[in-house]
């Protein structure tokens, strides 16, 4: 899993032309909000038991192929993928724990002809609610009392 990195702009380490697609001083060199349109984000479930998984998908429709996809939780990077030339939709399977509740979204980067990295706006976020751990007797007891 990628380190938690805020999805925002950071100054480049040197004034040379071009940017990097790796984090700098704990921040990602990605405009916030980005200049490119937001991708389409899909979450397979919005309420799930801890221990299950949720499929996150990010679809990018752009004339220029994306170079990197980033999945975020509460605006912080949780995973990134290098892009393939002809691919439009990217998947990330999120293993759900009790700490997984939050707002999920995605974004992408494109390198232009000058090798400059341009970022998208983040997709509209979708909230994931973790309902508990089914193997925990306290969770089952709470569920039975709520019925």
UniProtKB/TrEMBL annotation:
Gene3D superfamilies: Immunoglobulins. It comes from the Eukaryota. PROSITE patterns: IG_LIKE (PS50835). Pfam families: Ig_2 (PF13895). This is Ig-like domain-containing protein. It comes from Chelonia mydas. Residues 33-123 form the Ig-like domain. InterPro entries: Ig-like_dom (IPR007110), Ig-like_dom_sf (IPR036179), Ig-like_fold (IPR013783).
């Amino acid at each position: 899993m990628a380190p938690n990195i805020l999805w925002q702009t950071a100054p480049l380490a040197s004034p040379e032309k071009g940017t990097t697609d790796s984090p700098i001083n704990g921040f990602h060199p990605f405009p916030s909000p980005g200049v490119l349109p937001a991708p389409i984000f899909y979450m397979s479930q919005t309420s799930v038991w801890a221990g299950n998984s949720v499929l996150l998908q990010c679809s990018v429709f752009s004339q220029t192929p994306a170079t990197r996809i980033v999945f975020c939780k509460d605006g912080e990077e949780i995973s990134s993928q290098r892009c393939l030339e002809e691919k439009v939709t990217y998947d990330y399977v999120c293993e759900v724990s009790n700490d997984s509740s939050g707002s999920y979204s995605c974004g992408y980067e494109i390198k232009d002809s000058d090798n400059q990295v341009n970022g998208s706006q983040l997709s509209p976020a979708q909230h994931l609610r973790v309902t508990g751990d089914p193997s925990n007797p306290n969770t089952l007891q709470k569920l039975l009392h709520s019925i």
